[in-house]
Every structure is written in structure tokens, then in C-alpha cells.
Design brief:
Blueprint: E1 7-10, H1 21-33, E2 39-43, E3 55-58, H2 68-72, E4 76-79, H3 81-86, E5 97-100, H4 105-112, H5 119-136, E6 139-142, H6 145-157, H7 163-168, E7 176-178, E8 207-211, H8 221-234, E9 238-242, H9 257-267, E10 274-276, H10 285-291, E11 294-297, H11 303-307, H12 311-319, E12 323-326, H13 330-338, E13 341-344, H14 349-360, H15 372-377, H16 380-383, H17 385-392, H18 398-401, E14 402-406, E15 412-416, H19 417-426, E16 464-468, H20 474-481, E17 485-490, H21 509-526, E18 532-535, H22 543-546, E19 549-555, H23 564-573, E20 575-584, E21 595-597, E22 607-609, H24 611-620, E23 625-633, E24 644-651, H25 659-662, E25 682-683, H26 684-721
């Protein structure tokens, strides 16, 4: 065994005596890798598996400290997209990443949530994770050549098929290769009876039709059940067994297909002939396969079918079990090519019944000679070949050492990592940004530790967000990371600021444009972001020009303009539901709405309101309600004390949107101090009435003062005349 590297395989699914396809896959891949190198298999549960030279590690999804120790010692990491979503820090590391894309999660999600209100949101989250995978991977795995074509298309669309990866390998096998689901090298052994003579109604002479795996939404057990009465009419000894109906991973949503199948069995009066189990232990599965007479795998005509690789079909091949399958997927093509079973059309009840009867009429032994050659080609040891080769000498993808950036006038250039770092240093960054691959921008401010103070929901999937005054884009990209579709607004030119006649320019027009746009543009490219940037003044925000947004975010921008009141009116006009507004405030406590006029000659600061004034300014914009969320001191990145900030969350809906608080949790790098408790939501109409009364009182005082001053003036004039 080599000792110069340590491979980490991270399973997103449970591994243990009872496990589904993903858990089996990562256990077997780890086992094969361990034959030639040190391997750790990390699982979200405490795995109990036989000794195979694999070190087992338990982690907690989303808790970095639970997996960081084994990350640090690894020379390559094998994972799927869910793991990257739980641990985005993996995109910043120095370790080559193998992305396993054998399971078409986005397509399964469309089927799983079909017909439900959450389908679009769930799928959008899956698409977000898919794009993360495309950016993060150095080597991609898939289960078939058909899947490989799909992955090449995805990688081309996300810029990963490029001059660097092509030059590295024109076939792109060093970027994407096929590692299918495999079979144990040893044939199955019958260790005990599990169905025939054990389950009530299944005698030793029964003809068992086995449905391998679970009852997932994208599969079609209903056609099989509708065909089964016709099978019974010709073959009374036939029995149908569904041994796995409850996924061993409790985090997997319950499938609606299972209760539908149970109800159909009842409607057809098939209870004495159809058996449902919970989940078969991995070690016991061989007994079910060896006692069955035919295996079945049926599915619908969907895109999931086109891209799927049915692991249950591999099990049938391992056991030499003839099968009846719906056509349309890669494993069906394999079965048809080698004559291992029969294919039927989608939802073809008559075809399924006739084909099952035809297969059952032949003894299982008549099929046996067709399986050994195929079985030998599909062992885990052979299937894992490309992965083993990569892990023996891990490497970064060619374009992860070279970066393509678009410079002025749309010219795209390829530069080295060192050149990229130098280019980043040459720019003036307002925000500190983590660009992945261990690259972080300088930035005047590092907002990451302060995120809890802003009250931004962790889950923004499916929401539209407008980031006003985006600067280098920290909040735009952060809210996109949380699932939002983000539009960023910033000024078109440096001299579009409210500078005033006393402004002493400290930048040329070209320098100002570079400051405003170059950092954001570079960060967007390197993050492969879909944030749309619009060059526009806050005063020009208009729902007819931009549309409405679920969330409008305005961070530290109001102090830079002469008319923050009008700006707030425009912010409110494009807010569909909620707004988060923050600005520099005067920390002095006062019940009076007062603002300090700064009016710097540079024009970068005009008004610092106190809390009461900031609240009144937001109320004047016409929001239906608002709350004071937090106040804090935002220090400069170099540790110099920075300005004091206040944060208000407002909304245009009759009551505060529930999603605004539905997913609020501290950022992983949050400062130790607690987020100040939010003040009680305020009804703007009542608050404005109270404020109007206060203003009327103040006006009366001023009027009285003016009358007194006029009387004193007249008295002085009379005295002067005398």
C-alpha cells in the first residue's frame, strides 16, 4: 500500500448494514481504493461495516469542524454536490476534488416534487448545487457514456471546456470519465431463505417477481401492478415482492409512490399475492436475488430515464437474474445488447404482462450462460479504474491552474494563478471576497464576520433580490449563494456620485470606472456568477424599468448621497415584499430625529442620522411596516475602528413576510457577540401619525419662537426711532 497520499471519500448518504445506492457506491469505491492507498470514508452517520482497510469517519452535515481534520490530511477528495453545498469551504482548499455525478439529482427532484408548490424552488436549489459542482471539480465521474455527454455539455456551458482543458487532453477524459455502478467480484451466495417458504403465501414452488430497490417517484410500479392480475390468471403461483419501501436515510423525503402502490394493490384485490418490505440489509440482498425468478425495473418516459443508470439492474446481472425492463435508459441498452432480459414500452400494461409470462415460462437456468461475461466486465475493481488512476497521482484540472478573465473591450485572456493574484492586487476592492481556490481579495471591509447583523435569510431560493450600491459585489454574490436571483445596481461612472461643486477629484474618470466596475466584473467571472449588473443611479430606480423584487438590499449607500429621503422612496417603489436597509448612523442616543451633516469636500459622506432619524426616514418611504434589526460598529479590515451602522428591515406586505425570519442562523464565521434582539415590528401608519403629531408640536414651538423674535425686533425699532 502506498503511503504518500490519503484519499477521502465523502458519502452524502448513510453507510451501514442497510443502505441505498449512494451509500453502497461510496463504500465499494472506498474499498477498492483502499487496496492500493490509504482511504477514509466519511459518512453522515456512524457507519458499522466489516473491516476492508477503510478508515471510517462520522461527520455532521454543515458543521465544518466535524470534517475539517480529515480534509486537512487528504491529497484528493471524492464527493457529490450535496457535500459541496454543506461545506462550501471545500471550494477554497488546496486539495484536488473529484465530483461524482452518477446520480441525476436535479432530474430526480423534478419528479419527486412534481405537482407540488415547492417543485420550482427545490429544483432551483438543485441547479445551484449543480453549478457549484461544475466550478469545483478537477475530475468528474459519471455512470455511462450517455451521462458523460450530458456532463460535457454542462461543463461547456459553464466554461470548463476551454483552451486549457482541451490542450491538456483533447478527449477530455482527464476531465470527465465513466465510473459506473459496479458488482462484487465474488458471485452471490445463498446463506438463508428469505422469501420462498418464509413469507406467508410464498411456497417453495412460487414464481417470485422481484422489484429491486425503492418505490421512487420517477419509477413505475403501477404499470406492473395493473399487469399482475393478467399474470396471475395464467400463472397462479406468481408472487410479487417489493422488499424496499422505506429509505434507510431518514433525511430523504417520503415518496408518494409507495402509498399509491399500496392503494392500487387494495383496489385490485391483490393483497394475498403482493408483499411489501421495509428495507433489506446489504448482506441479505443476495438471498432475495437468488430466490427470485425474474427481476423488474419499470420507469416513466422522462428526462430522468434518459440520464439514469439503474443500480438495481446491476444487482440482477450480478445474480444472473433474467429481467423485464422499460426501455430508454443505459442499463436497458446493456441488457438488450447481451440478451439478459426483455424490454417493454413505457406504461404498457399488456406488454408487461405478456413479457413477464414469457420469461417466467422459461427456467432461470436457461438464462445463466449469458451473464458471466457481462458480470466480469462490471466488477467494482474494473468500474473504479479511472478513479483509482486519478487518486494514485491527483492533479488539478488544467483550467484550475489557468484563469480566463475578460479585460477591457471584451478581450479574454488566459493568465496563470500568479498573474491572477497580481491582477487582483492591482485593483481597488471595497469588499473582501472569497473567490474560491484559496483566493481572497484585499478589501477595505471584510463583511463576513458581520453577516449576522444584517438579518439576511439563509434560504433565498427562488427569490429575486436587488442589491443597490453593490460595489465589489459581496452582498450580491452572498445572496446568490443563498439561492436568490440577484440584480446588482451601481453608478455608471465615478462622476455620477453626488459630489457637489466643492468636490476635489481624487480619481480620473478612467480610474473611477475601474474602481466601480473592474472588481465586480472579475469576481463575477471567477465565481461563475449569474448576477446581473445594471448601471443606474438610485434616484432612477423604477418598477417599469427594473421590475419588482422580493427583497431589496441597500447597504451603506445612503450616506454617500445628498438626498437619502428620495432614494428611500425609490427603494420602496421596487420592493415587492421586503427591504433590508443599512447606513452609517450617529451612535448618540436621542429621541429627536437628528442627522449630522458631514459634507466632506470629497463628497463621500453627507448625512449621518441618529437612530430616530433613520427610523423616520424609512417610515417616510411608505413601507407598510418595519423593525429595527441591529446596530454595530463595522471596523476596517486592518483593524482600524470603523463607522457605526444601523440596520432596518421593512416590508410592503400587510404583515412581515414569514420567510424573512424562517431561516436566520449565524454565519459560520460570525463574531462572538450576539445579534442584538430585533425591536418589535412597527406599523408605519401609526408611527407616522405619532411622528406627525411630534412635528406639529415642534412647528408650534418654532412658530412661537418666531413670533417672539418679531416682537422683540419691533420693540427695538421703536426704541431706535425714539
Amino acid at each position: 500500500m502506498q503511503t504518500d497520499g490519503h484519499i477521502l471519500v465523502i458519502s452524502h448518504d448513510v453507510v451501514g448494514p442497510r443502505m441505498a445506492g449512494p451509500g453502497i457506491r461510496y463504500w465499494e469505491l472506498a474499498r477498492v481504493l483502499a487496496q492500493s492507498m490509504p482511504v477514509t470514508l466519511a459518512t453522515p452517520n456512524v457507519a458499522q461495516m466489516p473491516d476492508a482497510g477503510v478508515r471510517l469517519w462520522s461527520y455532521q452535515p454543515g458543521v465544518w469542524d466535524s470534517i475539517a481534520p480529515v480534509i486537512a490530511e487528504s491529497t484528493a477528495i471524492v464527493l457529490c454536490g450535496d457535500v459541496l453545498a454543506w461545506f462550501p469551504q471545500l471550494m477554497q482548499g488546496e486539495t484536488p476534488v473529484v465530483v461524482d455525478g452518477y446520480d441525476p439529482h436535479p432530474l430526480e427532484t423534478l419528479a419527486l416534487f412534481a405537482g407540488t408548490p415547492e417543485q420550482a424552488q427545490r429544483h432551483q436549489e438543485r441547479e445551484r448545487i449543480l453549478h457549484i459542482q461544475c466550478r469545483a471539480g478537477d475530475f468528474f465521474l459519471c455512470a455511462s457514456e450517455r451521462q458523460r455527454d450530458g456532463w460535457l455539455g454542462l461543463l461547456e456551458a459553464t466554461g470548463r471546456v476551454n483552451a486549457q482543458t482541451y490542450q491538456d487532453d483533447p478527449s477530455l477524459r482527464r476531465l470527465v470519465d465513466v465510473v459506473p455502478f459496479g458488482l462484487p467480484a465474488q458471485p452471490p451466495q445463498h446463506t438463508r431463505s428469505v422469501m420462498k417458504g418464509v413469507l406467508p403465501g410464498i411456497g417453495p414452488e412460487a414464481k417470485v417477481i422481484l422489484w429491486g430497490g425503492g418505490l421512487w417517484e420517477w419509477l413505475d410500479p403501477l404499470t406492473l401492478l395493473r399487469a399482475f392480475p393478467r399474470v396471475l390468471a395464467r400463472c397462479p403461483e406468481a408472487r410479487l415482492v417489493f422488499p424496499g419501501t422505506q429509505h434507510p436515510n431518514t433525511g430523504v423525503p417520503a415518496m408518494r409512490m409507495y402509498p399509491r402502490a399500496v392503494q392500487l394493490v387494495a383496489d385490485l384485490g391483490l393483497q394475498p399475492y403482493v408483499f411489501f418490505g421495509e428495507w433489506v440489509p446489504y448482506a441479505d440482498w443476495q438471498n432475495y436475488l437468488l430466490e427470485a425468478d425474474v427481476g423488474v425495473a419499470l420507469h416513466f418516459d422522462t428526462l430522468e430515464t434518459r440520464m439514469a443508470f439503474r443500480t438495481r439492474v446491476l444487482d440482477y446481472i450480478w445474480a444472473g437474474l433474467p429481467m423485464v425492463l422499460t426501455r430508454g435508459d443505459a442499463t436497458g441498452d446493456l441488457v438488450a445488447q447481451h440478451g439478459l432480459g426483455r424490454l417493454v414500452d413505457f406504461e404498457d400494461v399488456d406488454g408487461v404482462a405478456a413479457t413477464l409470462l414469457d420469461v417466467l415460462a422459461q427456467p432461470r437456468a436457461a438464462w445463466e450462460a449469458r451473464f458471466p461475461e457481462v458480470r466480469a466486465q462490471l466488477t467494482w475493481e474494473r468500474a473504479a479504474g479511472p478513479l483509482v488512476e486519478f487518486c494514485r497521482a491527483p492533479y488539478y484540472a488544467a483550467d484550475r491552474l489557468q484563469f480566463s478573465i475578460t479585460k477591457q473591450h471584451g478581450v479574454t485572456m488566459s493568465i496563470s494563478r500568479q498573474e491572477l493574484l497580481q491582477h487582483i492586487e492591482s485593483l481597488e476592492w471595497y469588499h473582501t471576497l472569497d473567490l474560491g481556490d484559496g483566493i481572497t481579495t484585499p478589501g477595505d471591509y471584510d463583511h463576513r464576520p458581520y453577516l449576522p447583523y444584517y438579518g439576511i435569510p439563509d434560504d433565498l431560493a427562488g427569490r429575486t433580490v436587488l442589491d443597490v450600491g453593490a460595489a465589489s459585489g459581496f452582498f450580491s454574490f452572498e445572496m446568490e449563494r443563498r439561492g436568490a436571483r440577484v440584480t446588482a445596481v451601481d453608478l455608471p461612472t465615478w462622476f455620477s456620485h453626488d459630489f457637489g461643486p466643492c468636490y476635489q477629484p481624487d480619481k480620473t474618470a478612467e480610474e473611477g470606472a475601474r474602481y466601480l466596475h473592474s472588481p465586480f466584473s472579475l469576481a463575477k467571472q471567477l465565481l461563475n456568477s449569474a448576477v446581473e449588473k445594471v448601471e443606474m443611479s438610485v434616484y432612477d430606480l423604477d418598477p417599469e424599468k427594473l421590475g419588482m423584487f422580493d427583497l431589496v438590499f441597500c447597504g451603506s449607500m445612503l450616506l454617500h448621497i445628498t438626498d437619502p429621503i428620495r432614494a428611500l422612496w425609490r427603494l420602496q417603489s421596487v420592493t415587492r415584499e421586503a427591504a433590508i436597509i443599512t447606513t452609517v448612523i450617529s451612535p448618540e442616543a436621542s429621541d429627536k430625529p437628528l442627522a449630522e451633516f458631514v459634507g466632506h469636500h470629497r463628497g463621500d459622506g453627507w448625512w449621518f442620522p441618529n437612530r430616530a432619524c433613520f427610523e423616520a426616514m424609512v417610515q417616510s418611504a411608505g413601507f407598510a411596516g418595519w423593525e429595527w434589526y441591529a446596530d454595530f460598529q463595522l471596523d476596517y479590515r486592518n483593524g482600524t475602528p470603523g463607522p457605526y451602522h444601523g440596520v432596518i428591515r421593512a416590508w410592503n406586505t400587510p404583515v412581515k413576510p414569514s420567510w424573512l425570519d424562517a431561516a436566520l442562523s449565524p454565519h459560520p464565521s460570525a463574531v462572538p457577540s450576539q445579534v442584538p434582539a430585533a425591536s418589535a415590528p412597527v406599523d408605519s401608519s401609526q408611527a407616522l401619525s405619532e411622528r406627525d403629531a411630534e412635528i406639529a408640536r415642534l412647528r408650534a414651538l418654532v412658530a412661537g419662537y418666531e413670533r417672539g423674535r418679531f416682537m422683540r425686533l419691533m420693540k427695538w425699532l421703536r426704541q431706535l426711532g425714539a
